[in-house]
């Protein structure tokens, strides 16, 4: 459905950064071409260097051709999109330099303005302050904060406090792009529109839950950022915890933003806090050494350009999480995420309990517990693994596991990228899929003791070869509980 009346100005601070060129501008290209943004809207990239509009358009065109899927870049679409693009030089560390941006925006003072801070978080507060000083924070202005929102609870609070001086909470959109993924939103549809799951979704029937985000990529040229963060801050504290929240939360009373966020924050507050002993027993941290992804030989983390040899950044983390409430008591959630693993996939696996007693001989093979596998990527699907009879005339009844599978239909419309959905929601002023301040802070409150114990050397940083399944102790961690990681 087209929403061509959405006319707004979108300012991307850090407009030539990797995120902007790889994700944000391609998402806006689609939104324009699909009719979700009206003609006359402007996408204004701010850059540190002075650059002509012509050179800016040349760069954006080249990146769109590189990052869009085959066939998506066409000359007529580019002609439409490029006519909305602007560029302006702003030095984020110098308030005085915001003047030309202010002149540009003040041409349409009443317009909805989306200010996307695709910059290092150290600039969030000062950028908001400069916008305020130049009168750019109007009632129609919203601010979008890209993660990471701090490195721990204290720094996250500081950033939130600084931004809150200029933007109210309802004008502040904290992005976690996993929430924009179609299948992540489908978790709510699955849970709250299918009666069959309602009575099963608790500790009486579910044995445990696994959430895995496996990546084959390495640093992708993001050393300056990644080296200060590592897998725990980059993936687990935000993307994986958000998925955990959607699996674990109680039904919200409506889809209104605060109803959903109230339920998520309750889950985050129910996460059991780690003692140093828990950290030793229930967490694993590791870093890749050289190896091969498929047939491509790849460097180890310490050999990547610019990495300090004393560096202790983890590129893999696995954690057993307990949710202390009535519904989930006794049901562990195993989270793991790593870079330079054999393949890229993200999945949530809900593993049900075993049947209490079996009447089937099943030739010594055990009856597998049912599981529900929600795959987010590379392809989106939902599979229910169930036991069925092996066809045949044998006297004894033998069983095997089969899958009931929901796939995106072949002729489904194009799958929208997470950033398309999220940018459109900011334009529509719908914050449901964004993190409220208390959510981010509750997530840090849980993560801090783990990070502190790791920094104090409580858990040894293990190695794994690039292209392997990760460190052996991540397997031991789950096997010690009598369980194993899901494999297709
Ligand atoms: C980002 C992380 O938030 O998510 C990256 O900073 C990671 O390190 C990326 O590669 C993964 O996103 P996706 O959508 O490819 O799973």
Task: Give the SSE map.
Elements: E1 8-13, H1 18-33, E2 42-47, H2 53-67, H3 75-82, E3 85-89, H4 99-105, E4 112-117, H5 124-133, E5 141-145, H6 153-164, E6 172-174, H7 182-192, E7 206-214, H8 223-226, H9 230-248, H10 257-270, H11 276-282, E8 283-289, E9 291-293, E10 296-298, E11 316-321, E12 333-338, E13 345-352, E14 371-377, E15 381-389, E16 399-407, H12 418-427, H13 437-455, E17 461-465, H14 472-479
Parallel strand pairs: 1-2, 1-4, 2-3, 4-5, 5-6, 7-12, 8-17
Antiparallel strand pairs: 7-13, 8-11, 9-10, 11-12, 13-14, 14-15, 15-16
Helix pairs in contact: 1-2, 1-3, 1-12, 5-6, 6-13, 9-10, 9-13, 10-13
The structure holds 6-O-phosphono-beta-D-glucopyranose.
Residues 215, 234, 346 line the site of 6-O-phosphono-beta-D-glucopyranose.
Provide the low-confidence segments as ranges.
none
CATH topology of the largest domain: Dihydrodipicolinate Reductase, domain 2
The helix content, as a percent range, equals 25-40%
What amount of the residues lies in strands? 15-25%
Distance between the termini: 37 Å
CATH secondary-structure class of the largest domain: Alpha Beta
Small molecules held by this entry: 6-O-phosphono-beta-D-glucopyranose
SS elements, strand count: 17
What is the overall shape? globular
What strand order characterises the main sheet? Answer: 16-15-14-13-7-12-11-8-17
Structure description:
It is a single chain. With 488 residues, this protein is α/β, with parallel strands linked by helices. It has two domains: 8-146, 3-Layer(aba) Sandwich (Rossmann fold); 179-479, 2-Layer Sandwich (Dihydrodipicolinate Reductase, domain 2), CATH 3.30.360.10. It contains 14 helices and 17 strands. A nine-stranded mixed beta sheet has the order 16-15-14-13-7-12-11-8-17, sandwiched between helices. Strand 4 (112-117), helix 5 and strand 5 (141-145) form a beta-alpha-beta unit. The two termini are 37 Å apart. The mean pLDDT is 94. Residues 215, 234, 346 line the site of 6-O-phosphono-beta-D-glucopyranose.
């Amino acid at each position: 459905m087209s929403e061509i009346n959405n006319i707004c100005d979108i300012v991307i601070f850090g407009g030539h950064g990797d995120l902007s060129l790889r994700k944000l501008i391609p998402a806006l290209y689609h939104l324009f071409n699909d009719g979700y943004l009206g003609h006359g809207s402007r996408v204004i990239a701010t850059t540190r260097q002075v650059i002509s509009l012509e050179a800016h358009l040349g760069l954006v065109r080249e990146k769109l051709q590189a990052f869009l899927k085959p066939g998506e870049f066409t000359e007529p679409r580019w002609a439409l999109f490029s006519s909305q693009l602007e560029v302006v030089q702003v030095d984020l560390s110098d308030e005085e330099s915001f003047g030309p941006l202010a002149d540009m925006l003040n041409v349409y003072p009443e317009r909805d303005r989306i200010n996307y801070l695709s910059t290092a978080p150290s600039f969030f507060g000062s950028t908001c302050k400069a916008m305020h000083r130049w009168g750019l924070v109007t009632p129609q202005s919203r601010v979008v904060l890209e993660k990471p929102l701090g490195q721990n609870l204290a720094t996250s609070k500081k950033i939130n406090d600084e931004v809150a001086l200029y933007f109210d909470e309802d004008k502040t959109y904290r992005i976690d792009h996993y929430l924009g993924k179609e299948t992540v939103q489908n978790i709510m549809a699955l849970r709250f529109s299918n009666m069959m799951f309602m009575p099963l979704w608790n500790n009486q029937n579910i044995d445990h839950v696994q959430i895995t985000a496996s990546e084959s990529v390495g640093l992708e040229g993001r050393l300056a950022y990644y080296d200060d963060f590592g897998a725990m801050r980059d993936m687990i504290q935000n993307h994986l915890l958000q998925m955990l929240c959607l699996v674990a939360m109680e039904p919200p009373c409506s889809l209104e933003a605060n109803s959903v966020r109230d339920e998520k924050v309750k889950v985050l507050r129910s996460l059991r806090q780690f003692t140093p002993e828990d950290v030793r027993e229930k967490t694993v941290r590791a870093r890749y050494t050289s190896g091969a992804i498929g047939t491509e030989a790849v460097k180890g983390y310490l050999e990547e350009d610019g990495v300090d040899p004393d560096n202790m950044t983890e590129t893999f983390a696995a954690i057993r999480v307990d949710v202390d409430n009535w519904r989930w008591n006794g049901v562990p959630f195993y989270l793991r995420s790593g870079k330079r693993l054999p393949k890229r996939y993200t999945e949530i696996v809900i593993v049900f309990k075993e049947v209490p007693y079996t009447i089937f001989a099943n030739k010594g093979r055990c009856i597998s517990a049912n599981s529900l596998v929600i795959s987010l990527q590379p392809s989106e699907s939902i599979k229910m693994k169930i036991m069925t009879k092996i066809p045949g005339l044998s006297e004894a009844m033998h069983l095997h596991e089969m899958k009931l599978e929901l796939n995106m239909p072949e002729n489904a419309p194009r799958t929208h990228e997470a950033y398309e959905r999220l940018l459109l929601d900011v334009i529509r002023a719908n914050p449901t899929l964004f993190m409220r301040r208390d959510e981010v802070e509750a997530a840090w409150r849980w993560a801090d003791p783990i990070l502190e114990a790791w920094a104090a050397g409580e858990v040894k940083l293990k190695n794994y070869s690039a292209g392997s399944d990760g460190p052996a102790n991540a397997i031991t961690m789950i096997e010690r509980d009598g369980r194993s990681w899901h494999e297709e």
